[in-house]
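Lab notes, practical 5.
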Amino acid sequence: MTIRNTLTLTFAAATLAVALSSGAVLAQSTAETRDPPPGVWKNEGNFNAVQKAWELVANEQYAEAITTFTKLTGKIKDPYEQSQALFGLAQALVSLEKYDEALEVYEQIINLDVLDNKNHYESMYQMAQLFYLRERYDDALRWTDRWLNESGEIKPDAYTLKASIYAQRDQFRPALESIDQAIGLVEKPREDWYSLKMAMHYELKEFNKVREVLEILIRGWPSKKLYWVQLASINVTLKRDEDALAILALANRQDMLSSESDMMQLFSLYGYLEMPYEAASSMQEGIDKGLIDAGAKEYEQLGNAWYAAQEFDNAIGALTKAGELSSNGKIDMQLAYILVANEDWGLAKQATANAISKGGITDANLGKMQELLGTSELNLGDLVAARKAFNAAMRFEKSRPAAQQWLNHLEELEKERQRRAASTG
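Output from the prediction step:
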């Protein structure tokens, strides 16, 4: 998974999480606040009826609560008592995710303007969150700003809500400023706040800042594999390949890499930094753990890494598997060269024969395989089969000179045999 893919997921999760969070109010600002008179229930029957309706909410009987509160709001005339019933109705509607209806009720509460500050401003803040859920981001921002201006409260979650709104509107700089305000207000910022901050830096292409935030996330939540993988990826983006490798290798030592893409990225970094033994070992580890679903391509890469590390037996084993899984002769041809250089004539004969029979290689390479097949047969002592292969190589222009030399050599060998046979006869 690329850094873009993982950050897209992070962005989506973080914006929703921080938008719907609710935390403590840290302090009062200097803004002017309401000073409503204390609310008084004038009708004991209304009070008891509203309390019974709230019991339905507490028992999660939301549909019954909505019916009861709706009847009460139509019957009660006193603004304060009506607002109390409306407040309960709004809560029940939100519980059943009837957000549009809840918004209308909350607006009625705010317009009546008789509840105490706590419930009045809670209604206002709920409106901001509900507008966010309904993807009405302009309205969500308007109500968030109104809450900040009128409530006189300093609440970090209000700034995270603003950050989420700006992020959804692709206004990444204001989103970053808002999330930074929230982070600056608390001693221990939440994980999803940092995730949103990281995503905003990424959208602004501030990759060094992305790296810094990821380092904070790893220090705070070291068991989260996602952050290790993202940090490695962003270091690759920043061309800090050695740092990227160190991060992924450390994550692997902690058994945090759990997917094929993770292990293949580790393999690629080792290879890019010219560490073939470590590259091959990491891929073999991924295969052994069942994380890498190895096919011809993967076994070919593994074989090449082992060969570069001069681990020839391992290279031959991996390339043999690759050849078995491949429908063309390219890998068998590659294996044949190694086996010939290793003077393993029996396996070289098989590899060259496979390359020839499968095809999918150029005429020049096909001629070379016929030549190496002849060489293998010659070293195995089968001069007839060797001659046949060299004659086949003669059909290809590039291999013809070498094939002719081998045929001349065969003739000399046969003459020598004949002389020896005559002298012993």
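Observations recorded by the TA: The beta strands are 27-28, 153-154. Residues 25-31 have pLDDT under 50 and may be disordered.
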